[in-house]
Amino acid sequence: MVYFGVFFIFLLFILNDLNQLHHNYSGLRLLFPIGILLLIGLSIYAVVISPVSFTFSWPIRLLTSLLSFLNFVLLIYTLFFALPVKETFVEGSKQPLCTTGVYHICRHPGFWFLAGVYLFAGLSFGKLIFLYLGLMVSICNFIYIYIQDQYIFPKLFEGYTQYQKNTAFIIPYAKRSK
User: Fold this and answer.
1) Which class does domain 2-166 fall in?
2) What pTM value is reported for the model?
3) Cβ pair 52, 127 in contact under 8 A
């Protein structure tokens, strides 16, 4: 059930993007925040229901907890502060293309931060199911950002094709044209 929930959540994200691309109905813009809330709820559920699979010493648990929190902060910054929030999440399809800051490093920097949250939290909690959940979320997220990058964003953002040529996909600084 947990893994099916991940597919459903990412389907909500894709439907939100398609709405921005085609109709931009204000009610359907709620799909993205609903998906985020469901992902948070599913993650909490996975932590609560699963037994501890392994443990580390407290310094390692503290380090992995701090790394998870750092990735969480960077994810929040990337999604909600590096982008113009009102245009991106309230007005929908009228937002400008962001090519500065973390979006200058690669086109989808949030991929790494989301994966980092799950990896380090799973290690901190010592719960194998949470690591599996993180792997499933990361795979679905990769597919989602690939769909965004190849089909949605080139139609949604003016200049996205040039941005693709000048900025790496997900590996920071991996591709630059002069």
Assistant:
1) mainly alpha
2) 0.89
3) yes
